[in-house]
Amino acid sequence: MARKANVLPSYLLHKQSGQARVRIDGKDHMLGPYGSEESRIAYGKLVANAANGIGIDPLKGGSSSTIESGLTINELVLAFMRHADGHYIKNGEPTSEIHCLKAATRPLVELYGFTPVDEFGPLMLKAVRQKFVDAGWVRDSVNKGVGRIRLIFKWGVENEMVQPSTLQALQAVAPLLKGRTEAHDNAPRTAVDDVRIETVKKMVRPLVRDLIELQRLCGARSGELIKLTTGMIDRTGDVWRAEISDHKTVHHDQSRTLHFGPHAQLILAKYLSADPDAKLFKITRTAFCRAITRACEKAGIERWVPHQMRHTNANNVREEFGLEHTQAVLGHAHAEMTQHYAKVSSKKAAEVARKIG
């Protein structure tokens, strides 16, 4: 397979001289002693130019005559990640945002770790973005990765580690637009048809089958169901309720209540325990998703994931009850998000649960 033309040039060793080099447009540019701070800075600047179609001044080449003192990208990222380790915590555990930040900062540090923070500009940010594209990230993830890098610099401004003008310059980098970039877009997630749902249900163990059906009935996220304990479920009324204290939008001070009608209650009753703190479903989100995707592959049908069951539930509720009821069931604060799921009140959600849940 031919090498992609847009892949950024590598940092290499020139064995005869012991210098670092980078090959751009068929020409080698010497950067200084291999592994040195000087060579890394020179490499980052040349890569930024190459990624943005800017030619190299033959009189300057790849050398860097001076290295300004001050905070480096390495030091800024290290300080921010120490902050992130204490900030992105839920129930005493790091959230997935930590992994996303590490993925975004890896090429940043690789290219510009030794660069002073206030020398980092839009062309360098675009070079890091090109690294995301070369790695096969989808367009939305590329734009989010760039946003995370800007977040680090924003935090640096807040803590007087970065000049405000540096952040202002980085904000000029526009997001990649659909159809105008080599970064591809994933197909939008849609509802799962009944045929594919029933096919998978026949091929998975009872616990997975029951979770699938619960999602179809109540529109909950898989993580919300897997966190359920017996003590969380209020069974005093004809519609059972569960207050979810740890949910996706809890940091926005939004509440989340699941409602279970008679059909969902029959499923839940099989897993209720004498221990109010014991989880009903002994499975992880990853294992639940894997069980479904493997069943799809084995059956030779189009693959789907648990989160698509929210789309399925949304379509069913919208068709019978309308947009406001759908918004209530899915727990959305804004109707725009509900529109996304379906082609706010507890009362409306309970009404749906009585009839179809």
Tell me what the structure shows.
The chain has 357 residues and is mainly α. It has 3 domains: 1-67, no CATH class; 73-170, DNA polymerase, domain 1, CATH 1.10.150; 194-356, Intergrase catalytic core (hpI Integrase, Chain A), CATH 1.10.443.10. 49% of the residues lie in helices and 8% in strands. The strands form 3 sheets. Strands 1-2-3 form a 3-stranded antiparallel sheet, covered by helices on one side. Strand 2 and strand 3 form a beta hairpin. The chain is elongated and about 75 Å long. The N and C termini lie far apart (52 Å). Mean pLDDT is 80; it is low at 57-69, 247-253 and 322-345.
How are the SSEs ordered, and which strands pair?
Blueprint: E1 12-14, E2 19-24, E3 27-33, H1 37-51, H2 73-87, E4 89-90, E5 93-94, H3 97-112, H4 122-134, H5 139-158, H6 164-170, H7 194-201, H8 206-218, H9 222-226, E6 233-234, E7 240-243, E8 257-260, H10 262-269, H11 285-299, H12 308-321, H13 323-330, H14 335-341, H15 346-356
Antiparallel strand pairs: 1-2, 2-3, 4-5, 6-7, 7-8
Helix pairs in contact: 1-4, 2-3, 3-4, 3-5, 4-5, 5-6, 8-12, 12-13, 13-14, 13-15
- The CATH topology of the largest domain is given as hpI Integrase, Chain A
Radius of gyration: 26 Å
* Overall morphology: elongated
- The CATH homologous superfamily name of the largest domain equals Intergrase catalytic core
Strand content: 5-15%
Number of domains: 3
Please count the helical segments: 15
- What structural category do the secondary elements indicate? mainly alpha
Succession of helices and strands: EEEHHEEHHHHHHHEEEHHHHHH
Q: What strand order characterises the main sheet?
A: 1-2-3
Average pLDDT, all residues: 80
* CATH C-level name of the largest domain: Mainly Alpha
The largest sheet, given as strand count, sense and whether it forms a barrel, is:
3 strands, antiparallel
Overall CATH architecture of the largest domain: Orthogonal Bundle
Which stretches are low in confidence, meaning pLDDT under 50 for 5 or more residues running?
Answer: 57-69, 247-253, 322-345
Q: How many angstroms separate the termini?
A: 52 Å
What is the number of E strands?
Answer: 8
Binned, the helix content reads: 40-55%
